[in-house]
From TrEMBL:
GO biological process: 1,6-anhydro-N-acetyl-beta-muramic acid catabolic process; amino sugar metabolic process; peptidoglycan turnover
Gene that encodes the chain: anmK
Class of this enzyme: transferase
Protein name: Anhydro-N-acetylmuramic acid kinase
Binding annotation for ATP: G11, T12, S13, M14, D15, G16, I17, D18
Pfam assignment, any one: AnmK
MF terms in GO: ATP binding; kinase activity; phosphotransferase activity, alcohol group as acceptor
Pathway per the UniProt entry: Cell wall biogenesis; peptidoglycan recycling; Amino-sugar metabolism; 1,6-anhydro-N-acetylmuramate degradation
Length: 378
């Protein structure tokens, strides 16, 4: 059965909400519909950053310390507004949509403690939009001993099958954290590789007040501090084999202690952090059965020419393309993936696998909710 599904993604870069529509049976993608991105206001981003800080050290995923309760209300409200605006902008009736896949905002991720926290009230979103919602898609995997991330590899595999190409492919998403899916026929291996854009974004915000390094221009004007890069690459995470996953802020203390960025110009610091992202992606090749022949890159990092150039150099002679080069979406792929995952959850088919999250056996997940009837008023 083909479902029309909307996927929602508010990623680790915290720049806004991506919305995408696909038609799928949860195994193949019948059609890709429209997509859009709705930016958070500066005040929203400030609140989410404070929520990340207040979430540090959480041991109970049900509690909401500090501003987390306020942030959860904000996340839910902004997602409802995004869905409503998306439907209006694309002249879609809610009755035409079968399900919404709602990721929420990750604020704390500690799978070794069987803990992952995504804020966002799925039931409230269903009530506000009048649509069936699938949310909390990581929790079942983490509870079963998996990493809970990355979740998108099964969607990457569905897309890769449509290419009809032989040989091994790496689908790389560079958001706040970078993650890879290695696909070779039915072999599926995935992990978070290390920092994506998060460290670069934080640096740019601190040094210039900007949201990100637009077009990689800041890094392009700088020089990589190779000595600092070597120190940063000594982090034990980079020696671990897949599957493995990260929290957005896992490397902040490491970089502060060993990066020496305060002594660098903004340009050199940006260049060094961009080199760190590319180098940690390339190092994953050592942990794969074979080097990918082709890399297909999505996420905000695909729009950074400096990062793409560094990556191409490090993984040569492999071919490096953007998702757009093969007819996919650079910016909407993760939102599409959560639409795809929602349909799989409705059908009770697996979202995660031993090779993607380390869970013992293929596992489905997610919580399905439908809109509650509104009380009648006299």
């Amino acid at each position: 059965m083909i479902f029309r599904a909307i996927g929602l993604m508010s990623g680790t870069s915290m720049d806004g909400i991506d919305v995408a529509l696909i038609e799928t049976d949860g195994e193949t993608v019948a059609a890709m519909g429209p997509s859009a991105s709705y930016a958070y206001a500066a005040a929203d981003r400030d609140l989410l950053r404070q929520a990340l800080a207040d979430a540090a050290g959480m041991t109970d995923r049900a509690v909401r310390p500090g501003v987390l309760g306020e942030a959860e209300l904000l996340v839910t409200r902004r997602h409802a507004e995004a869905v409503q605006r998306f439907l209006k902008d694309n002249q879609l009736s809610p009755s035409a949509i079968d399900v919404v896949g709602f990721h929420g905002q990750t604020v704390w991720h500690r799978p070794e403690q069987k803990l992952t926290v995504q804020i966002g009230d799925g039931q409230a979103l269903a009530d506000a939009t009048g649509l069936r919602v699938v949310y909390d898609l990581r929790a079942a995997d983490v509870a079963a001993g998996g990493q809970g991330a990355p979740l998108v590899p099964v969607y990457h595999r569905a897309l890769a099958r449509s290419l009809g190409e032989g040989g091994s492919i790496a689908v790389l998403n560079i958001g706040g954290v970078a993650n890879i899916t290695f696909i070779d026929r039915e072999t599926l291996i995935a992990c978070d590789t290390g920092p994506g854009n998060a460290l670069i974004d934080d640096l740019v915000l601190a040094r210039t007040g900007g949201r990100y390094d637009a077009d990689g221009a800041l890094a392009a004007r700088g020089r990589v501090d190779e000595t600092a890069l070597t120190r940063l690459l000594a982090h034990p995470y980079f020696e671990q084999s897949p599957p493995k996953s990260l929290d957005r802020n896992d490397f902040r203390a490491h970089v502060a202690a060993h990066g020496g960025l305060d002594a660098m110009s903004a340009e050199d610091a940006a260049a060094t952090l961009t080199a760190l992202t590319s180098a940690t992606i390339a190092r994953v090749v050592e942990r794969l059965p074979r080097a990918p022949a082709t890399w297909i890159v999505a996420g905000g990092g695909a729009l950074n020419p400096t990062l793409m150039r560094m990556l191409s150099t490090r993984v040569a002679p492999a071919r490096v393309e953007t998702a757009a080069d093969v007819g996919w979406s650079v910016e909407a792929m993760e939102a599409q993936a959560f639409a795809f995952l929602a349909v799989r959850a409705l059908s009770g088919i697996p979202l995660t696998f031993p090779g993607t999250t380390g869970v013992a056996a293929a596992l489905t997940g997610g919580v399905v909710v439908t809109p509650r009837a509104k009380a009648k008023t006299a």
